[in-house]
Amino acid sequence: MERLNNGAHFLFISNVLARAEADANVKSKLSAQIVSLKTAKEHEDEDLKVSQKSMLTDDIATADAERDGFYSGYKKAVNGFKNLPVENMAKAAKVLTQHIKDYAIDPKMQLDKETGLLMNFIDDLEKKYSSEVQTLSLGAFVTALKAANEKVRTLTATRTDERMAKAVGALKASRKASDEAYRQLVKFVNAYALIEGDSKYLSFIDYVNTEIVHYKREVIGQKSGSAQTSGTTGGTTGGGSAGGSTGGTTGGSTTGGTTPPSGEIDG
Length: 267
Known about the structure:
Blueprint: H1 6-22, H2 24-29, H3 31-52, H4 57-81, H5 87-103, H6 111-126, H7 130-135, H8 139-167, H9 170-196, H10 202-219, E1 228-230, E2 253-255
Antiparallel strand pairs: 1-2
Helix pairs in contact: 1-3, 1-9, 1-10, 3-8, 3-9, 4-5, 4-8, 6-8
């Protein structure tokens, strides 16, 4: 399961942990392994949240609101000149009104889309429609709008770089720790099932194996018959750029999306 994205990886680990804690027999025999998995999951959760919520997000929202205010003010100013009884000013307002309609910029649209459209929109005002802007004395609006748009662009670019760094840093490390804790849990469950008989562990084993098949089918998109595992294997769980591996000593056989036979947790 190397191709799991970060969200799916965290959900898989969370589901296995919840099931282990709910299984009285597994919890009593493998309390140390469960504690390790819980600790690793909590660290991964924190790193996943940090990777999604940048410290710059609030700054971007503030800059975006300021930008939208300038854009709204510019539109109102242009509209106010349309019925002015001064021919050259009314004509300039008509040209700029059509320009606004052509771009159809909505402050509620996706952030990067708005930024890109405004870059072109402002470029037009500075070059193609500079005379109309000058006629209506709207240069201050254009200057302010350009500065605000550039601020948003710079902040979003910085946030992207920040997220990329975190994706290959803290989150990658915490995913690996979760994988290792999961692998140890699987190893001990399989060992106890072999020593004591699998009847006490069958419910947990069947659940985890069913989860593995689900993620291979629904998240990764692995088709039935596309992969086969037999004998003693170690599976992998990772995903995206963060990577990581999860598995353990397993047995039986698995063909593609077919649920492996009960008795041991498959990789």
